[in-house]
Design brief:
Layout (H helix, E strand, L loop, with lengths): L2 H4 L43 H5 L3 E4 L14 H9 L10 E4 L5 H9 L8 E4 L2 H13 L3 E4 L17 H8 L16 E5 L3 H4 L6 E5 L11 E4 L16 E6 L3 E11 L5 E11 L5 E6 L7 H16 L4 E10 L4 E7 L6 H10 L8 E8 L3 H14 L2 E7 L11 E8 L3 H15 L2
Parallel strand pairs: 1-2, 1-4, 2-3
Antiparallel strand pairs: 5-8, 6-7, 6-8, 9-10, 9-12, 10-11, 11-14, 12-13, 14-16, 15-16
Length: 433
């Protein structure tokens, strides 16, 4: 990392990719690598719930912070949807969740599917209630696992599983070089907003990423430009002083490597998924089972990256986006140190349909103006036929948000890849509006 880049990210320890000892963990002495050959396959006792990963007396909050310079209505629905996603696989772990994710018909559908739905949802309907639920959880003596950085005035670091600074740093697009071996890095540079026009010519292809510790996710911080297309800069360029400009890659295979770091501080593999990416470079869902194998070198590096994060204090789930280009390069694209839309379906399948992990299966998201009760009623025949699992959802009608945009998360599975894809695309065509 160059001197300029080092000023642009939080001053956390620089991680060597080769020989410098890390700080160690309670079970890993300083300087000794915990990565072994057996870690390169899913563990025999794979976690099924958040409780299996975090242990007792920890609450999870997966809601991005409200940025102080942004109107509260902007991205409100996205933030609330993200808060509700972990509920389906929470088990006994308390979850700070929007009340839109606890709609009774939705909870019934999750339980009917056999999911380990959270037994302790801490619901909020307003911004004030959100802060109150976090404060109450801390008052109950729980530690907080913030999947996105929140102000320390709301969740002090001493009451957190991982500090806000660490979570922000790990997810900052500008800090990827401190955790990824140079062999697997795409060409990228951190530029100021004043330098942006020169670094992003219209005649070339490039990818623009937000250089921020806010780590809001949900594809809000990535913009893909193809040579010759008009340049329409994303909203985050109006809010930030610096951004990352990355080379545009001609991708042949795109994987999401799902890992977790439990309380013992050891990084473990959950599974490898294929990622479906739309024409704008936005994640639209995952494929599970019967996927293109991940090259061993890349898988080893993913374990090493997660362990480097564990050695500086990270605990929880993470998804590492990586790819193989058409010319054979192996590249790490993004580090997502938080619960993601790839990890939740995997825990769901491990719990209720582990056989589906060896068969074609795909995740998808439906969005509609109808209520979640109406959407589930329309889907009931398909759910009863089998090969379809509800893994989460959100109805903003149960909050003070005035937008009517219901979200439902599903897994489609079967014996034939083409048939699974056909059913998924049919569902999206019927209900996405």
């Amino acid at each position: 990392m160059d001197a300029a880049s080092s000023r642009r990210v939080s001053p956390l320890p620089v991680i060597s990719h080769h020989s410098t000892p890390g700080p160690g963990t309670p079970t890993t002495p300083q300087g000794r690598s915990p990565i072994t050959a057996t870690a390169l396959t899913p563990t025999l006792a794979a976690p099924r719930t958040l409780t299996d990963i975090y242990g007792p007396d920890i609450a999870v909050c997966a809601r991005p912070a409200q940025e102080p310079t942004v109107p509260s209505s902007r991205h409100r629905n996205t933030r609330d949807v993200l808060s509700a996603r972990p509920l389906a696989i929470a088990g006994d772990t308390p979850v700070i969740t929007s009340a839109g994710g606890t709609e009774p018909n939705l909870l019934a559908a999750l339980r009917d599917g056999g999911l380990p739905v959270g037994t302790d949802p801490r619901e909020f309907r307003t911004e004030a209630e959100f802060a109150a639920r976090v404060t109450e959880a801390l008052s109950d003596g729980l530690l907080m696992s913030m999947e996105y950085p929140q102000p320390t005035t709301l969740s002090p670091d001493e009451r957190s599983v991982k500090s806000a600074e660490l979570v922000g740093y790990l997810n900052n697009k500008a800090s990827i070089s401190t955790f990824v071996d140079p062999r697997f890095q795409a060409r990228r540079q951190v530029v100021t907003i004043d330098e942006l026009a020169e670094a992003t010519p219209v005649e070339k292809s490039w990818v623009l990423k937000a250089a921020t510790n806010a780590a809001h996710g949900a594809s809000l911080d990535v913009y893909l430009h193809r040579a010759g297309d008009p340049v329409i800069l994303p909203a985050f360029t109006d809010l930030l002083t610096e951004v990352v400009v990355e080379e545009y890659l001609n991708i042949h295979h795109n994987w999401g490597v799902q890992l977790y770091v439990a309380a013992d501080g050891r990084a473990r593999l959950l599974a490898v998924t294929d990622q479906r990416i739309d024409a704008d470079g936005v994640y639209t869902g995952g494929r599970f089972g019967l996927i293109v194998p991940l090259p061993a070198d890349l898988l080893t590096e993913c374990l090493a990256i997660a362990q480097r994060a564990a050695d500086v204090g990270y605990r929880g789930m993470c998804s590492l986006d990586c790819a193989q280009t058409h010319d054979g390069r192996l590249v790490m694209l993004d580090l997502n140190f938080r619960i993601t839309s790839g990890s939740i379906p995997l825990l769901a399948l491990h719990t209720i349909r582990p056989d589906a992990l060896d068969r074609p299966s795909e995740s998808t998201k439906l969005t509609t103006s109808a209520s979640i009760a109406a959407l589930l009623a329309a889907l009931r025949p398909a759910l009863q036929r089998g090969g379809l699992i509800v893994t989460g959802g959100h109805d903003p009608r149960r909050t003070d948000n005035t937008i009517n945009q219901t979200t439902l998360h599903l897994i489609v599975f079967g014996d034939d890849h083409d048939e699974v894809t056909t059913r998924r695309t049919k569902l999206e065509a019927l209900y996405n509006h």
